Amino acid sequence: xxxxxxxxxxxxxxxxxxxxxxxxxxxxxxxxxxxxxxxxxxxxxxxxxxxxxxxxxxxxxxxxxxxxxxxxxxxxxxxxxxxxxxxxxxxxxxxxxxxxxxxxxxxxxxxxxxxxxxxxxxxxxxxxxxxxxxxxxxxxxxxxx
Length: 145
Description:
It is a single chain. The protein is α+β, with helices and mostly antiparallel strands. The chain has one domain: Quinohemoprotein amine dehydrogenase alpha subunit, domain 2 (Lipocalin, Beta Barrel). It has helices spanning 36-41, 70-73, 103-108, 131-141, and strands spanning 4-16, 23-32, 44-53, 57-67, 75-83, 89-97, 109-116, 121-128, 143-144. Strand 1 (4-16) and strand 2 (23-32) form a beta hairpin. The model has no long low-confidence stretch (mean pLDDT 92).
């Protein structure tokens, strides 16, 4: 049983290498922590949900992890894996870096990259958490187990 869980939606855009235009990108995930003792040892949650990367990975299953060791590392690294429309495996890797002077932006902006199965970058992305439309839903999604 998880110690806690929550849902998160991030939206923005991505650009594949060599392409001139940006495309829409979003993901919605449910994050679940391990039991309290395991979470205290390794502050990371497992995530599962859906990625929608326009014309690249349309409404595809997404799984991965989010690091929540914010006090020690001042970061929130995302490592999410999915299969694109071409049937190949890809990952989205990104990291929120926390800055005291700009805490709201630090928690709501997620720069990242799209990697192929070999770890080579095939695109870049910039996602945001929309405080106006998603904050209440995000806060209501928190559950303690």
